[in-house]
Amino acid sequence: MNGNGADFEPRIVGFLCNWCTYSAADTAGVSRMEQPANVDVVRVMCTGRVDPVFILKAFREGADGVIVSGCHPPGDCHYDSGNYKTFRRMPLVEALLQQYGIEKERFHWGWISGAEAPKWAQLVRDFTEQVRALGPLNWQRQYESKE
Amino acid sequence: MATLIINGQEVHAEDGQTILEVAKANGIEIPTLCYHPLLEPYGACRLCTVEIIRRGWSQLETSCTYPARDGIEVKTNSPPVIEARKAILGLFLSRCPNVPVIQDLARQYGVTEPPFPVKDPEEKCILCGMCVRTCHELVKADVLNFSEAGPERKVGPAFLEKTRQCIGCGACTIMCPTGAIEIVMERDAVYKEKPLGPTSAIWVPSMQAVPRVPVIDTDACIRFRQSDRTEGEIADACGVCQMICEADAVNFDQEDEVIELDVGAIVVATGFEMWDPGQLSQYSYGESPNIITGMEFERLSNAGGLTGGEILTAAGKKPERVAIIHCVGSRDHNAHPYCSRICCMYSLKQAHLVRDKTDAEVYDFYMDMRTVGKAYEEFYERIQKEGVTFVRGRGAEVEVLPGGKLRVKGEDANLGRMVHVDVDMVVLSTAIEAPHDADRVGSLFGLSRSEDGFFAEAHPKLRPVETNTEGVFLAGTAQGPKDVPDTVAHAGAAASMALALLDRGEVVISPQVAVVNEELCSACKTCISLCPYTAISFIEEDNVARVNEALCKGCGTCVAACPAGAIQGRHFTTQQIMAQIEGLFRLPGKQVEAEVPVAEVEGAAS
Known about the structure:
Chain A is an alpha/beta fold. Helices cover 44% and strands 16% of the residues of chain A. Chain A contains 5 helices and 4 strands. Among the domains of chain B are: 2-77, Ubiquitin-like (UB roll); 280-433, FAD/NAD(P)-binding domain (3-Layer(bba) Sandwich), CATH 3.50.50; 438-503, no CATH class; 514-604, 2-Layer Sandwich (Alpha-Beta Plaits). The chains are: A alpha/beta, B alpha/beta. The interface between A and B is large, with 38 and 40 residues.
């Protein structure tokens, strides 16, 4: 896995909705905005599609942090109300992760519209540093050792 | 139908017409002061006196009140008539010696000096009653009336006191032939001073308006104001526009109506608004009537405008110096950071108009000259040759000097020092911005907006008129600042996209839809309440949920929520997303360990 200390490069998985944050991330890239390459993006049509299992799966596979980001409520959701479902689910996910012993700083959920490419780049920069400071999660190894 | 002779000419009159009306219809001039076609004839000024010969008898009568009877002969300029008018005008001139209309009329009849002693040289009222009749017959406010009798007779409101009955419509001042009535504003009400605003209650929004028809401003219209004020009791006030409209086109009952249409495509062309320069105090907008926006300059220089197209200051003088300030509200982090694209070109055009119509010096404060477009740079060169002084640097501040002159300060970046110029008129080239209710329009059509507030297109290069909502297209400045040629091209593209959609005759839907595995469905109905498109219905006889693929948009909310894992979103199946996540972490060649079946973990869902 990844090394420790200053060399440590966190692996972060982002579940982004196709219409808002995915297009913001796309614009940030096309606009050559400075951002670390630590976030791998999984595109979903709507954050309402993000099954909490996906987040657990990402951590289990070796992610050090997870981002879920979609359209601003109210009204920005391409599917009318998918972001409200995310709004309801994610606090439960937060609680669940803490029960699994995963620091809440490793999970971010929020809203970035298609027009907010700089906000996305800033989030990537900030969140990468936040996760870097926490060090590697190695959840899979912990998971296996407990089995 | 009557036949009579006027000045030896045989003319025909319809029933009920007066001699004056018949004469006017036949191009025979009779002087009048108290006559108006919209008011009942009154015969007060006696100036329209004519000689009428009936059954051999000659008599002098006012032509505005005398019916055009069959067989009579009328002389409008015979010696007795001239004498009578001389006497009348002599009386008027003695009462009102300094009213130009009366002076001119008297001079035409050879009366140059008041024949009787002048009581009050400032008197302007000839007691013709035009104002009284206007207030009674048209406005129906009944504010003005005559009081006292004989030499003391005068016109005014009851007891000559201020009254709430007066709505300040100003109709009496317009009708008064001698300019004896003035309107004094005690406070800004409907007529808040707007130097270049609309001029009356019925007006054409612009000379280029399509369709070019007038609209009634119900806040200023006498009829609507009287009706609103009296809660409908006075519902038939004024209506002058309706009376004089030969096409009978004025309809006071016409109201805004909501029309519901079923359509297959929508083009959003909601346009732009002008940024209000009052938001940044350094431009002193509103502190002097000579600080105007580019849009107001357009109205000023328009041949249909208040000055007939002449470029004049608020005092009615030709300006000697005019400053034009570019980038007001655009390229400014205190307002809009974007370039509003059209201002450089309209500023140059306005500089040209000032040079063309006046001898004024023009100072053009600009940061960068953005003349992008076919033949635009050539136009810029032409304006440079027309003697406009270009100052490279933002016009930083406009100061209203005590004498009313305006001082424009700014940095001349080419000279590297601060400069200022005192001018008579400042034109602010204000930015265009997204309409204030763009957020509401956006959520109505499911449109997202880009950072500048305009509606976002589906792709900045490849899909410039489409949006992320199927069947909704953007045209013109709704999408971003554009000049006229670009707007025309953009709108043409939007129209053809809409037509292509309609012409196909069938709707292509995305294959990314949800499907229910009916074997797994446990009939919990969780998905049904979650679907924002009511695309899932519960089939009672089969005891399963089923997705209508024509309604489903493929958001996947139901897929994530299904506790039984019975719904799959095509192209975004759980297996596909799981495989993506695995792909991120499992390097090629690395041993893939035995997978925990998905269904075991899915209990954690929703």
